[in-house]
Amino acid sequence: MTRQCEICGTQVNAKFNICKDCKNSEILPQRLKIKGSFYEKDILRKEVFLDIPERIAKLFNQGDMGMNKLRAFFYMVRNAYDVLNLDYDISTLDKDQRYEKVKPRLWALQRTVEDRTRRGITPGSFKEFINYYLEIALKSKEELYGFIELFRSVIAYSK
Ligand SMILES: [Zn+2]
Description:
Blueprint: E1 2-4, E2 11-13, H1 20-24, E3 39-40, E4 43-44, H2 52-62, H3 67-86, H4 95-118, H5 124-137, H6 141-157
Antiparallel strand pairs: 1-2, 3-4
The structure holds zinc ion (ZN).
Residues 5, 7-8, 10, 18-19, 21-22, 29 line the site of zinc ion.
């Protein structure tokens, strides 16, 4: 007898609710990856708000990624986005140039996650979440906004 892992959907022994990978919270399963863009025809995808963020929240919970840590990282992403609107020095730059100024903050975030993961403070699944979704977010201001919305949704489903 098998059933579906309630986080990633893979088949598991019916004795368990979740698979070994999700239990260990070391990776971000394919099922939890929005592919390519947060948008479909310029509209944020439904999965940015529903289903996927709920699964991601469960996965992080398995890895002891509590609300405080999650919020701390969320603010780093949101603050990077705010630079686009608040920084007086860059107000004279055009849209693309301004976005280039945001990128180092996102790279610094990746560096921080790398460090926290190595020290066992955050789970591998969170590192994969940041690295996978920042790759999309680094494409444009709009995609970064999509990532912020996804991150907000994950927090909404977290304990
Ligand atoms: Zn699973």
